[in-house]
């Protein structure tokens, strides 16, 4: 396995780094200037750089694990250089200006933006169904109340005293992704696979009886109907990070390099 670049050094990036090293990859991690020591402590045995050009000199495959800000800051530069970029920050693509910038950079440099499936499944079926035409796609996200801490849910609900499942957002996937940048990447993934940000229905629920983060996708169209639900576990190092999201990033790297892909 070749040298792989990583943007970020949080819990997901550390998980990805551990698994890629076990498969023989060498790693280059992009850190903010002044944060080199923190990155080095988090991702051992990696080359730490502070400039995108330094990273791109060593790899033609980069994994963005730094959230929406990371994709916005570095995505266009990476694609413009013809480098393939895997991202988990799908919600950032709800920003029409950023979407256009990334598209233009990819076209001019022949880079490719690969969207990791993240914390959800059934996107392959949803994407195939979109070919025949979709009448309805709905995503429902359900988490324990404190799982919504730090989001607009805090203004809509008293999360600490909630006694029953209560929606705090109902709308389209674009609004969900823009309002909940740390919570709605799954809604964005569903929208991008199916009928787009503005036609995909979204409801976000705080549920005191929930034991994990549950994602449900419903769709109806020429293909028939689909109803998929998954309850995901968190990474041990960060209760707010989905284990499946980290796994999907590793899988995306494997797909980018393997001769046999699914």
The stretches of 5 or more residues where confidence is low (pLDDT under 50) are: none
**Biggest sheet, open or closed, and with what strands and sense?**
6 strands, parallel
Structural class: alpha/beta
Approximate shape: globular
- Gap between N and C termini, in Å? 18 Å
Tally the beta strands: 13
Supply the number of structural domains: 2
Tell me roughly what share of residues is in helical segments.
Answer: 25-40%
From the 3D structure, determine the CATH topology of the largest domain: Rossmann fold
Query: What's the CATH superfamily of the largest domain, by name?
Result: NAD(P)-binding Rossmann-like Domain
Reading the helices and strands in chain order gives EHEHEHEHEHEHEHEHHEEEEEH
Break the fold down into its secondary structure elements and pairings.
Elements (H helix, E strand, L loop, with lengths): L2 E5 L3 H12 L3 E5 L5 H7 L4 E3 L2 H5 L4 E4 L2 H14 L3 E4 L8 H14 L3 E3 L7 H10 L1 E10 L9 H4 L9 E7 H7 L5 H9 L7 E6 L6 E9 L2 E9 L1 E2 L2 E5 H15 L5
Parallel strand pairs: 1-2, 1-4, 2-3, 4-5, 5-6, 7-9
Antiparallel strand pairs: 7-10, 8-9, 10-11, 12-13
Helix pairs in contact: 1-10, 4-5, 6-9, 8-9
């Amino acid at each position: 396995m070749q040298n792989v670049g990583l943007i970020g050094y949080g819990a997901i990036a550390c998980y990805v780094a551990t698994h890629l090293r076990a498969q023989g990859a060498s790693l280059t991690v992009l850190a903010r200037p002044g944060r080199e020591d923190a990155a080095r402590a988090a991702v051992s045995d990696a080359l730490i750089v502070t400039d995108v050009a330094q990273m791109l000199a060593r790899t033609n495959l980069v994994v963005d694990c730094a959230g929406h800000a990371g994709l916005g800051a570095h995505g266009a530069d990476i694609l413009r250089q013809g480098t393939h970029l895997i991202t988990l920050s799908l919600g950032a693509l709800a920003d029409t200006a950023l979407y256009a910038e990334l598209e233009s950079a990819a076209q001019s440099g022949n880079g490719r933006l690969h969207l990791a499936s993240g914390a959800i499944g059934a996107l392959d079926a949803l994407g195939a169904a979109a070919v025949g035409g979709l009448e309805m796609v709905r995503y429902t996200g359900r988490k324990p109340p404190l799982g919504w801490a730090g989001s607009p849910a805090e203004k809509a609900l008293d999360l600490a005293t909630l006694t029953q499942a209560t929606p705090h957002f109902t709308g389209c996937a674009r609004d969900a992704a823009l309002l909940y940048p740390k919570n709605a990447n799954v809604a964005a993934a569903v929208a991008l696979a199916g009928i787009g940000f503005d036609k995909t229905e979204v409801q976000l629920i705080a549920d005191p009886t929930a034991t994990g983060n549950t994602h449900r996708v419903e769709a109806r169209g020429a293909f028939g109907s689909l109803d998929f639900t998954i309850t995901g576990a968190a990474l041990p190092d960060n209760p707010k990070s989905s284990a499946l999201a980290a796994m999907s990033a590793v899988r995306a790297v494997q797909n980018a390099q393997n001769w046999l892909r699914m």
